[in-house]
UniProtKB/TrEMBL annotation:
UniProt record, GO biological process: lipid biosynthetic process
InterPro entries for this protein: AB_hydrolase_fold, TEII, Thioesterase
Species the sequence originates in: Variovorax guangxiensis
UniProt-recorded name of the protein: Surfactin synthase thioesterase subunit
Domain Thioesterase span(s) in chain numbering: 1-207
UniProt record similarity statement: Belongs to the thioesterase family.
Coiled coil: none
């Protein structure tokens, strides 16, 4: 999906997708299932990308990881993004691990895939694809369960832009709570659709992303790339 964005976004935005261990071309690697360890890995592996004028975009678990990456960059005294985009996620202070399905059985994970939508029927029909999907989803949820919010975290020192689906099952108040994490400009854009509204209404999502990113870097300095 993010690779396709390279063809759809303005040329002044260079999209640099982040592929996590155990997925895609990195399928031969072991999953990293601890939140802090995964954030640290991303900061190390993407050190070159996160220089100059850059923004970070994350959807679902990616939004939580993006938040952690910014906090870690700040603690290390490294350059910070010109903006953070958090999509399809509760605010870090409002995470509810009880709503996550049991990762020890396939039935709960399959039901969760059905509930969220966005998974092609071809995946459900293929035992091999389902095994890959369920293993990845289980690893994702273990990452999310290992996240611990630190109430002493100070607000983010850059514009924070949140995107959400009106039909997503995440409570609106948990999404709106992202505003408490914003130390500067904050925006919240709602779109029709469920958890994967960024696929269902891609053109509208990208238009909002370009608009918000442009405002975040107003004054003549554009972000040269976006780490997604």
């Amino acid at each position: 999906m993010y690779l396709r964005w390279r063809q759809l976004l303005p040329r002044w935005i260079e999209v640099m997708p982040v592929e996590l261990p155990g997925r895609g071309m990195r399928m031969g690697e072991r999953f990293v299932e601890a939140y802090d360890a995964l954030v640290e890995r991303i900061c190390t592996e993407q050190a070159v990308a996160m220089q100059g004028g850059f923004a970070i975009f994350g959807h679902s678990m990616g939004a939580l990881l993006a938040y952690g990456v910014v906090q870690r960059l700040r603690s290390l005294g490294r350059p910070l993004p010109v903006a953070l985009f958090a999509s399809g996620s509760s605010a870090p202070s409002q995470r509810d691990s009880d709503r996550l399905p049991d990762t020890h059985g396939d039935d709960a994970l399959i039901a969760d895939l059905r509930r969220q939508g966005g998974t092609p029927e071809e995946v459900f029909a293929s035992a091999e694809l389902m095994r890959i999907t369920l293993d990845t989803l289980g690893a994702d949820y273990r990452v999310c369960r290992s996240f611990e919010y630190v109430s002493a975290d100070t607000p983010l020192p850059m514009p924070l832009h949140v995107l959400a689906g009106r039909q997503d099952d995440i409570d609106a108040a948990r999404v709106e709570a992202w505003s408490a994490h914003a130390g500067g400009a904050f925006s919240l854009d709602w779109f029709d659709g469920g958890h994967f509204f960024i696929r269902q209404h891609e053109a509208a999502v990208l238009a909002a992303l370009v608009r918000r990113l442009g405002l975040s870097v107003a004054g003549g300095r554009h972000a040269s790339h976006a780490v997604a």
